[in-house]
Amino acid sequence: MEAVVSVSADVSFASNQFPKYRIGADNQIFDDIKDDPKGPPLKEVVEQETAHLVEQQKRLSVRDLASKFDKNLAAAAKLSEEAKIREVASLEGHVLLKKLRDALEALRGRLAGRNKEDVEKAISMVEALAVKLTQKEGELIQEKFEVKKLANFLKQASEDAKKLVNQERSFACAEIESARAVVQRFGEALEEEERISQTSGKQELEKLLEEVQESRRIRLMHQPSKVIDMEHELHALRIQIREKSIISVKLQRELAMSKRAQENQFRLYELGGCESLGSSLQVQPCSDEAQELSKCSVQWYRIPTEGSRREIISGANRSIYAPEPFDVGRFLEVDVFSTGQKVVVTTTGPIGPAAGLASYVETLLRKPNTEFNVIISQMNGQNYSSRSVHLFHVGKMRMKLCRGWITKARDSYSTTMQLCGFRGGGNSAAKSLFWQARKGQSFVLVFETERERNAAITLARRYAYDCNVMLAGPDDQAFL
């Protein structure tokens, strides 16, 4: 008996009974199986089995695939043997049918009548059987070809699986060996580190003991009271040095004042005030022979360097003048005319910058617009009666003066615009600036502090320079 092929336990059948076959007309085979209303549809069963097989295929390892390929190869070999047996049986069937047909042909020649018709009918049936056998033989040959093809495919797949298994085994062995070597190196490194830590720990302990002994020895040699006395002495020396430095500065100032008095003993006027941005310089009489300043005419000049040609500061004809950012690094000179004689007074050095102004301007440059609170002192050359606070906007493209919704002036940077420090004198000259928005419209604005006034001038000139406009005061274009 032929061996029964084992069926997988994962397979489920739609019915629990074998089908019953019957032969109908034209030798057609029909089965009497009816759909079981209790069982699931065949389509769902096939989809479930397919999904289950896909999951199993994903879970299979290389070794499992190799073993399954081996089983399929054995099954293909068994199918090939069965195909050979069927081929032999088919040949035997052809021989038997030929012999039977020959016998029936011989019998038909001997018989007559109804028996002869039966024999002819039997001969036709034998020929039909021969045709069916030939068809079956063709199907058997095709099946044999398919089985042979499947066997070759399974054989190749089995060999590939074996190669993969061997390759994975070699990779696993190499990784195991490398891991073993790494573990060994780690063990050696840990042992070496432990040995070094023990040795270094002993050395550090010995050093610590030596330091403790040295500190004890120093403590015994130097008493704490001596250290405290030395600290008090150092503190007293620092105080003395500070006092002497203060006295030295005072002496230097007195010496400078005495030298200046000696130089000015034949002069009639001198400059008073700090020679730096943010302050005011004032012409003061320094001799009894000097005439009152109210009866004299004054004119201020700007000198780029000492001894070079001086430039007139238009409008600076009062005894008080507040330097502006253009004057930083330059000498200032004033001419005093009295009773037909001219007295020239010059600053002792160039005008110094204002402390912290540069950083303040850099902070304002990060803003798109800068606003300052100002009071209008003059408008179009006339004193302005209202002392209300206005906002002075300094932008990257234009400047604006407004109060709430009312705009006094708003103009972009142009060649007709002028901006400088106020040159008309007065106690608030260091906080005031002159702004000519356009021809025929000018203002004198008073800021809250000197720093805001100088920052507004510097910021506006920086923005105007970015617009290819040199913003300066009256008659300063030649100097620029």
Low-confidence stretches: 1-14
Which radius of gyration do the C-alpha atoms yield?
60 Å
Instruction: Write the element-wise H/E pattern from the N-terminal end onward.
Output: EEHHHHEEEEEEEHEEEEEEEEH
Number of helices, where a helix is a run of at least 4 consecutive DSSP H or I residues? 6
Number of strands: 17
Itemize the secondary structure elements and their pairings:
Elements: E1 21-23, E2 29-31, H1 42-59, H2 62-110, H3 114-221, H4 224-263, E3 269-272, E4 281-285, E5 297-303, E6 311-312, E7 320-321, E8 331-338, E9 341-346, H5 357-365, E10 369-379, E11 382-383, E12 389-395, E13 398-403, E14 406-412, E15 418-421, E16 432-438, E17 441-447, H6 450-466
Helix pairs in contact: 2-3, 5-6
Written overview of the protein:
Among the domains are: 36-178, Helix Hairpins (Orthogonal Bundle); 268-346, Immunoglobulin-like (Sandwich), CATH 2.60.40; 357-466, PH-domain like. Strands 10, 11, 12, 13, 14, 15, 16 and 17 form an eight-stranded antiparallel sheet that branches. A four-stranded antiparallel sheet has the order 6-5-8-9, with no helix packed on it. A three-stranded antiparallel sheet has the order 3-4-7, with no helix packed on it. α2 packs antiparallel against α3 and α5 (357-365) packs across α6 (450-466). It starts with 20 loop residues before the first strand and ends in a 14-residue tail after the last helix. Residues 1-14 have low confidence and may be disordered. It is of the alpha+beta class and 480 residues long. The protein has helices spanning 42-59, 62-110, 114-221, 224-263, 357-365, 450-466; strands spanning 21-23, 29-31, 269-272, 281-285, 297-303, 311-312, 320-321, 331-338, 341-346, 369-379, 382-383, 389-395, 398-403, 406-412, 418-421, 432-438, 441-447. It contains six helices and 17 strands. It is elongated.
